[in-house]
Amino acid sequence: MKFAELGLNESILEAIGYMGFDTATPIQEKIIPEILKGKDVIACAQTGTGKTAAFVLPSLQLIAENSKDETNTLILSPTRELAIQIEQQIQGLSYFLGVSSLAIYGGGDGNSFTEQKKALQSGTNVIVATPGKLISHLNLGYVKFDTVTHLILDEADRMLDMNFFDDIEKIRKYLPNLKQTSMFSATMSPKIKDMAKKILNNPTQVILELSKPAEGVLQVAYPCYDQQKSALILNLVRDRKSLESIIVFCSTKKKVSEVFQELRAAGESVEAISSSLDQDKRESVLLKFRAKKIRILVGTDVISRGIDIKDINLVINYGVPNEAEDYVHRVGRTARANTTGIAITLVSPRDMAQFEEIEKLIGRTVTKSPLPEGIGAAPKWNAKKPSGGGGNKRNYKGKRK
After folding, report:
1. pTM of the predicted structure, to 2 decimals
2. Is 290 exposed, middle or buried (0-12, 13-18, 19+ CB in 10 A)?
3. Structure confidence at residue 394 (pLDDT)
4. Residue 326: what are its φ and ψ, rounded to 5°?
5. Cα torsion through 4, 7, 13, 16, rounded to 10
6. Can you tell me the distance from the alpha carbon of 123 to that of 36, in angstroms, rounded to the nearest whole number?
7. Using 50, 70 and 90 to split pLDDT, how confident is the model at 108?
8. Order of all β-strands in the sheet with 180-185
9. What is the mean pLDDT of residues 301-322?
């Protein structure tokens, strides 16, 4: 369906066209009319489906129709990176509307705090915020959200995982005139359903097919021992010199640092990103990676959701993700917008059973590739779940016990 068929006004359509889009994604097609009607919505869709524009576009139109210098819409997101990305998309899509917006998040200096305080006091139309930082401002007593009528929770499942539920409930108490709430989640877990029952009023529910990487992703698994992984990653990136943008996902900050140091020592163009970096450094690294001044980015799951980096050619999972859904989000960094990409997972013997759980989730058997020459002999594929004591055991959902 074309955006012009969704009831959006000419200024919005002009901004969309200026950005090179004319056809809505399935979630945009289903959600935009419902938000324009003022209905509560809950949408379940994975990374790369266009959900940000699904709530930003109709929200901007409703604000433009109201045409007042007051805060109308509050968007909560779990991370600074996602808050920044959403606000940047708002800026692009509101180019012809004159709608004001600002991202509120921690990690900045005194100047950023002053800018945030001013925006909260002056009636900025759209506030995009992380819950913790917003509560810091609310506790100081100068924030007035009496005019907020629309609350949007993005990555709601991630916020629950990060124990933000109490913060969200506290923030909602500052919204006395709230008329509409929208929830977006990558999973429809029991916790999400319970939350929806508490905060949504007769919502429209949209669930897109979950947990299936894009068709354009070539998925490959390399059975290997832990001690072979460093040499294997170096071989993979050097053997694919035509690939300009590569992300290596690690499950811990310590492993991110180790892989980064090994790749840098080998002369590769690489940077690392994790929650331990300050905000300015993280933004600088992401900017250089988007501009292709860095070929390889090593990071934790902080970059698996929300952060919009286009044209990723190759995703490498240093190990099998702790949860099956995380695999989908990581792989979702490549082959976006109907492009193609490669996703490679390094699978040690203890993780083979977990990887088969992921294959069941995505409905596909991933090709098991032999190790390149010079790496050594690979372990045989044996998906029997480990027994006995010691080590980290996982349950059937992939969560560490």
Report:
1. 0.68
2. middle
3. 39
4. -65, -30
5. -90
6. 22
7. low
8. 101-104, 126-129, 73-76, 150-153, 180-185, 41-44, 204-207
9. 77
